[in-house]
Structure formats: structure tokens, C-alpha cells
Amino acid sequence: MEGLKINPWEVSSEIKEQDYPKLIKEFGAKLIDDKLLDRLKKITGDLHPFLTSRLFFAHRDLDVVLDDYSKGNEFYLYTGRGPSGKMHLGHLLPFIFTKWLQDKFDVDLLIQITDDEKYLVKDISMDEIRKNTQDNILDILSLGFNKERTHIIVDSEQSKILYNNAIMFAKKLTASTAKAVFGLKDSDNVGKYFFTSMQAVPAFLLSAIKGRNVRCLIPYGIDQDDHFKIARDILPKLGYYKPSAIISKLMPSLQGTGKMSSSDPNSAIFLDDDEETVKKKINKYAFSGGRDTKEEQRKYGANPDVDFAFNMYRALEPDQGKVSRAYADYKSGKILSGEMKAMSSDAINKFLSGLRERKEQIKGHVGEYMFDVNRFKD
Ligand code: TRP
Asked: How far is the CA of 278 from the centre of ligand 1 (A)?
């Protein structure tokens, strides 16, 4: 789309809600329709709020995974994180959703940490990236992932198995494809041209190890779609299934436009923000779907769907009955913006303090979550 850039290394800040269906069409993926949601609900019993709120709104071949699953064939999940800095709430949301999927389907999950990628594309040192890698892994694991079925792959540490598979992929990926898809130039470093081959490996790694095809479902933000579009082209050429995908919108920043960004501390809530900071950020910066004055809000009500505080409340409040009531009351004007913000800050602070507690328990056990090829050999 003119002017809009959505790719792994560059995201326009002007992306708006109404752009998403157009983007998905242009990318060649599909929207998740009500029929597919019903089908998911039959298997999972309930629907995660990120599905009902359409934060995860699109897919590639999700139906194929479900077809296979209903025939008794297991699949596995794969997602990842580029360790470019400390994590904020927006970074964690895809992992919250992935954990929900893992718990519902009881399947293996690979989490790739692309330290190599961040070295290639960002101006930061490997030392800094290593530190981020350790911190980010702890933050992710503090969500409480299933230890038996969660496997973290740090690219630079699992380089042997990744590289041996990545070259199979790279042999089928031409520089002209990489140029066309990512808009790479001759002046870009060659590592960028190669990198998709690394990010594609976990999408077929379990099939490669087991020597038989196992389906892979990848939850990711729409900015990662280019890598997986290429992977879907190339994997059948190597004899593997095309990976399936469940795709989210980008997390909006506190201010409502663009996405949460680590480089602007006021655009995001960091996992180590204390209670007062969270309250202050929500009160001062959160984009409100409410009216300008109390009187107007009482009379006309708010638009909760665009309201940052409400969206965080919906994402993090465990009691979804309460969330439905808040939605109705905020929309009708019974709840004011300030009240919504207070409910939201409370939910965020409870969530963050839970994370911090679990983080303490997990320290010292991180090694137990690291990828080990022997656990997948039949
Ligand atoms: N490239 C992603 C990033 O910069 C990290 C990543 C690797 C990833 N594998 C993935 C994200 C699979 C989603 C799904 O954040």
C-alpha cells in the first residue's frame, strides 16, 4: 500500500485499524472469520480475548492444522523474539497468546531468539545482545510456560543444527527474491540476505529431526509475514509442509498510533515499570476512546475498542465476565475515562507483579527450557 511499510525491519508508524484488512489481502493471507472462530472454540472450549478482540485477526492455513489435529495428528507451535532491548507489554502479548494455544492443544513450542538477526540489522554490540537475550528469555518464561514442552533456541548457541538446516533453505532462496520481498539494496550486508533461512528453520526443524512431516503453526505479528511467505514457498521444495500461521496486528503505542516502541519510553509500558510509573503512564499518555468532558462521556459514552486502557484491561484481566461488563458500561457512559484508566492500571500492575514473582522462581532453571535435539528423536 502506498507509503505504508510493514516488514521485519521497518514498520510505518501511521498504520491504522482500517489498513489491516487491506494489508492482509495484499499479503495473500486470510482474515479469521466467525466460522473459523467457532471451529476453534469447539476444540478449545473458550476463545482467548485476543481472538474475540481480533488482535489475532488473520491466518494462513490455520484450518489445515485444525483438520489434521481433528484426525489425531499433533502439530507444534513456533514463535520468536529478536533480543534488541528490554521487553515491554506489547512484546509479551504474542507470547501470552502462544501460551494459551500451547495449553489448549498441549503441544510442543519452539521459541527462537534471533540474536544473530539483531546483530546484523541493529547498531548494537554482541555483548549487549547477549545480555538482552538472557533478560528476554527470563521475561518470556515468567509467563509460566510448560517446561516439558517449551524449547528455547538461541541462534548463536544452536548454530550447528540451525546452520545445517538453513543451508538447505538458502540454496533455494535467491538474492533477487530477498531484494524484491524486503526491498534490500546492494549496499545492505549479506547477512540480511541470508537471515530468512535462519528464521525459517524452526518451521521445519521437528520434521527434519523426526524424519517425517509434522505440521507447524506460527503465531506472529504481521511485520514478520515476509519471512514466512518465503518459507511457505520454499519448504515444499525441500519436501516439508508449508507452515501455518496465526497473525496479529501490531500492538498500538500508549498514544494510539504506531506501535509500542522501546526507543520511546513513554510509548510503552516496560515489564520493570513500578506501580506508580504504570499509573502515571496510563493517566498521562494512554490514548482514550472516551469523550472530552465528563458530561459528554455520560451522555454519549466511549469507544472502548480504540481505548488503550480498556484494551490492556481486556488483555490482562483474568475475569472476562468483568471485562464484558466494563465494555458495556464504558460504551454507555456509565464508566468515565479516569475510572477505566484506574481499572486498567490495577490489572497491569497485578499482572506485572505476578511476572516478577515467577521470574524469581525461574531464575536458575532457565537451562531446563533450552532446546535439546535428543528430546525429539522418536
Ligand atoms: N524476527 C523476530 C523479531 O525480530 C523474531 C522471530 C524469530 C519470530 N522467529 C519468529 C517472531 C517466529 C515470530 C515468529 O522479533
From this structure: 27
Instruction: Tell me the CA–centroid distance for residue 266 and ligand 1, in Å.
Output: 24
pLDDT in tens, 37-68: 999 999 999 999 999 999 999 999 999 999 99
- Distance, CA of 86 to CA of 271 (rounded, Å): 8
Indicate which atom in ligand 1 lies nearest the CA of residue 221: 13
Neighbours of 174 (CB within 10 A): 11
Residue 316, C-beta contacts closer than 8 angstroms, at least 6 positions apart = 347, 348, 350, 351
User: In the predicted model, is pLDDT for residue 253 greater than 60?
Assistant: yes
Ligand 1 pocket test, candidate residues 60, 76, 95, 112, most atoms within 8 A of CB: 112
- Asked if 291 and 244 sit in the same domain, the reply is no
The answer on 132 and 22 residing in a single domain is: yes
C-alpha 200 – ligand 1 centre gap (Å): 10
Pocket of ligand 1 (CB under 6 A): 8, 78-82, 112, 114, 117, 199, 218, 220, 224
Closest atom of ligand 1 to 220 CA is 13
- pLDDT given for residue 183 in this prediction: 93
Residue 142 lies in a domain: yes
- What pLDDT is stored for residue 1 in this prediction? 54
pLDDT of residue 255: 74
Q: Which atom of ligand 1 is nearest to the CA of 218?
A: 14
Calpha distance 99→283 (Å, rounded): 30
Residue 113 is placed in which grid cell? 531468539
Grid cell 506501580 is found at 275
Question: Does the residue 59 lie in any domain?
Answer: yes
Q: What mean pLDDT is reported for the chain?
A: 94
Same domain, 49 and 165: yes
